[in-house]
What we know:
Chain B: Keywords: Disulfide bond, Electron transport, Membrane, Mitochondrion, Mitochondrion inner membrane, Respiratory chain, Transport. By secondary structure, chain A is mainly alpha-helical.
Amino acid sequence: MNNMKYSICFISFFFLFMMMMVNFFFMIYFIMNDMVILMEWEIMSFNSLSIVMSILLDWMSLLFMMFVFLISSVVIYYSKSYMQSELNLSRFIILVLLFVFSMMLLIISPNIISILLGWDGLGLVSYCLVIYYQNLKSYNAGMLTALSNRVGDVFILIVISWMLNYGSWNYIFYLEFMNNDWEMMMIGSMIIMAAMTKSAQIPFSSWLPAAMAAPTPVSALVHSSTLVTAGVYLLIRFNMMLLDMFFLKLLLLLSGLTMFMAGISANYEFDLKKIIALSTLSQLGLMMSILSMGLPDLAFFHLLTHAMFKALLFMCAGIIIHMMNDIQDIRFMGGISLYIPLTSLCMNISNMALCGIPFLAGFYSKDLILELVSFSNLNLMIFFLYYLSTGLTMFYSFRLMMYLMVNDFNLLSIFNLYDEDYIMLKSMFVLLFMSIISGSFLSWMIFSYPYMIYLPFNLKMMVIYVSLVGGMLGYFISNMKIYSVNKFLMTYNLSNFLCLMWFMPNLSTYGLSYYFLNLGQSLLKNIDMGWSEIYSGFGMMQVMKKYSVFYNVYQMNNFMIYLFSFIIWMFILFMMLMFNN
Amino acid sequence: MGQMMGSYDARKVDLYMDDKPTFDPQAGFNYQRKPREMVAREEDLVSAKIPVKYRDYCAHHLLEYQSCRYKNMPLLYKCAHEKHAYLICEKDDYVIRMKEFERERRLRLREKRIVGVA
């Protein structure tokens, strides 16, 4: 730790932290004066062709940048200790910085081309980070992540080609004036599809839990708070255009199902990081669904508060995994609050913020979202999806908390039970502070026009009811020894369906590889090794062979045939001479 | 959902949430009803850049809240009073609209009943 002062981690941390401070002051100034700055920087002008880099700075982009800078700075600080045995630490830090750069490009772009650059950069860098440990599992996870995101990249590329019709790629100019245009409807649909891949909505969900093969600081930065919210952010920017579209109603259903599905799957999961990843998926579903109800500012609010406590949750998980000798299975953990009290403190607070316990960060955003859902004109199914998912959040959070903190000491071996790594703890305390105050701070800051909510008492208390039921179920399920319960196997098919994310991985990994490989095998047998072989290589050889054997008979017996034909000729000659007389 | 529950019964008389009142505003009242007054001035709202959808009967409270925000940024908790006043006004406005909706529903039911008898 002696070389902390001049290490690449410290320099990067310092730079990012300073950028965060600068962004903070600018953000305050922009909100105060209701300012927006659109800069166009001409890179090249050649005859009538001009290549222009546009930058959009408003309170939203500045606030998001501030949060990305804050989380990335503390994650890099944390990595100094977490990745200390890594030989190529500089490579790791440079990858993280590249990720931050791509994210910035995405945030400040009012132009679809530069969005694509940021978007593609995110996909590429996240692939490099997922395969960082270079084993079979991470290669597979990386490929799944990269290819799922690639689908979104292709949609953005199609959007670029559609937007050629307008003569400019600055989408921001067309959002309000072209929203009845059929072409804009197509563009909007594709933007939604692209956002669904990046934010891992159904049916593109399976890559997010798989991406947990990445190092934990990467999960804290990339797969919880920034990369996955890129899709949400893109839709927030495009929201003005999408409001009247049918696809947005479909998105409401799909995102509602995503949060419900992820909530259930998290209850079946035993991998610590995957539980947190599924909870991220659930929260992303919440953001997407509130967005598709036409409330982008609420989605943005939840995006920011969620980024804080989820990054903290991952960092705590990282410490626990280190401490447990790289074991991630929560069945081996238990009673850790006695050994690592400070980390447990952070873990509990971030978990409670996730559940929406008053007055932590998640409370302000989730409660507001749920109250506005209750207040708005929606059907019963969406209403139930929201409230069941809220209960499920409490359910898996309590289950996780019980498994980690309260249940019996169940360690595989006593290994390094320590809580003294102050580099990691210091960075976590920054996020801990933010997880507590950011909800209140942001709710004052970003809602210039506050929402009025007026509900009947029981509807108002519905969040508390479902949370209490969820918490109780979480407590019971953590104490249940499922393997000792008779007839558990009777629910095997249902459990299989629920714990495998509604067979979503089968659609994207197993489905894509198994069925296509099977098809390939049958094509190989029937076409390559079958008909085409018969009519080309093998068949021709057979025919040639047959005829060459036939001709061979003449060839091998040519002297005999010659003599025989000579005799016949002589016989014919003789007969002719004889009969001529 | 809350609005849905409140307005579900109104569908029997073909009344939906966005419908405007169709009866005489004075019908059934033995005193003179006063229409709501717009307190905030248009030029103030324009100069404060208040979006059109927020220029309602509580906009004067909103203007106060906005000016307080400007003065106290970033310590916005100091504007709790102004925010509360605005939200109370919005809530009263909402209650008025809901009462008007219920009045419309009952008047339609009454009309249906009278027509049915005749």
